[in-house]
Amino acid sequence: MSYYLIHTTYPILFVAVFARQLCLPVPAILFLLSSGALAGAGKLSFAGILVIAVLGCVLADSVWFQAGRVAGKRVLRLLCALTSDPGYCIKRGRAVFQKRGVRLLLVAKFVPGLDGICPPLAGMLGASLPSFVAYDAGGASLWAGAYIFCGFLFAKQLDMVAKQLAVAANFLIIVLGIPLLAMFFWRVFMLIRMIQLLRPLQITPAELKQHLDSDEKFGVIDLLRFEDDCEGVAGIPGAIRLAPPEIRRKKRITIPSDVNIVIYCRSKNSFVSARVAAAMRKHGIRGVHVLKGGLDAWTAQGFSLSDEFADPAAELQRLGIEMTPSWHPPSTRP
C-alpha cells in the first residue's frame, strides 16, 4: 500500500482506471484505495479523485460502446474467447442486459465478467449514447466512490496490513506465482505448437465440398454453438452443431480409420477450431481437419448453407463413431 500512496496522483489514477476499463491488467482498485487514503490526509481532493475516476471509466467504456455498435458480436467473441464456453457467456450476457437494459450499468462494475461485456452489449443492442453515458457514469460513481471511501476510512489499517503481508507476499510469489506463470506460458506455447501442427491438416472449402459430394465418410462439426449466439445462423449442410464441452467430457472416442472429421467455426484464424482439434487429438483422433477460413470462407465460395443440421446420434452411427459415455443432447441452461 505504501507504494501506491507514494505514486498516486490525479493523472496516474486516471490512467489506471482508464486502462482497467480497457481490460488491461492494471491494479486500479489499489490506486482508488490509496487515493482515498490521501484524501483523508488532505493531500488530494475527495471530489477531484472521484471525478477523475468516473471520467476514466466513462471514456474507456465509451470505446467499448462504440466498438459494440460497429463490430457487435466480434467484440463479444473477443471478450469471451478465454471463457470455458464463449457461446454461453455471450448468450447469458445478452439475456441479462435485455432484461435489465442500461440500468444494469449501475451495478455491472461490481460483478466480475459482467463489467467487461456490458458496454459493447449496450452499443450492439442499440442503447442511445446519452443514456449509456448517464447510467455508466452513475455506476462508475458508485464503484469508484465505494473504494475511495474505504481508503478514506481505513487508510491506517490498510497500510499496516500491507506491511505485514509484504514478506508473505514475496513467499507466495515464489511458491505459487512462478509455477503459475510457467504453466501459463507452457499452455500458450502448446497452443501455438498445436496450431502449427494443424496447419498441414487444414482443408479448403472447395476440397471439403468435393469430398461431401463424393459421399466419402466425412463428418462435419459446426462449432458456432460454442463460439457465438448461433440462433438463426445457417451452417454447412449435413453438419452437426455440437458444443465442444461435450467432446471434452468423453472418456473415450473411437473413430474408424477411414473416417475424417472436419471442424469449423466462424473466425477466419480458426482459433476456436484449433482448440477443439487439440482436445480431439488428446483422445487419439488423428483424422481431424480444420476448415481453412471457417464458415466465412465457405460462404465466400458461394456454397450453399442450411438451417437444418444432422441429428448427432444418427450421424455418429452412420460414421461408426463410438463415445463413452454415449452422446446425449446438451442440457438447456437458463
TrEMBL record:
Keywords attached to this entry: Cell membrane, Membrane, Transmembrane, Transmembrane helix
Gene3D superfamilies: Rhodanese-like domain
Transmembrane domains' residue ranges: 12-33, 45-67, 132-155, 167-189
Classification via SUPFAM superfamilies: Rhodanese/Cell cycle control phosphatase
Recorded GO CC terms: plasma membrane
Chief location of this protein within or outside the cell: membrane
Top-level taxon in the UniProt lineage: Bacteria
Transmembrane helix among keywords: yes
Pfam families, per the entry: Rhodanese, VTT_dom
Subcellular location: Cell membrane
Domain Rhodanese: 236-307
Membrane protein topology class: Multi-pass membrane protein
Entry protein name: VTT domain-containing protein
